Amino acid sequence: MFLEQEVYGMLNWGFAIVIVVEFFFVIHLWISQKFDKGSFIFILSHIIFFFFAGYNLLIAINTFENETGMGSEEASVHIVIAGVLWALSVIFLLFSFSRLAKAKK
Description:
Blueprint: H1 5-33, H2 37-60, H3 71-104
Helix pairs in contact: 1-2, 2-3
Keywords: Membrane, Transmembrane, Transmembrane helix
């Protein structure tokens, strides 16, 4: 996908900053609130899968210099991988919400 030259760097840095902030926020909450360890593992799994989903999506829209002869096919594969990983990350996030709700009862 063709975008303004500056957009690629902003996308890469913006995604990295959001993931790092999310990770440290979850660590802070876990230390300060001492919530269920299983919920914490599910939330960390969400962050990991979401990171790889975003990474594949960034590859698909060509934010990294990667010249191949089959660019559109490669982009399609990366979009599918990103979608599957994103769906898995949402499932892990929902599992963590479920465990946290049960722990509050």
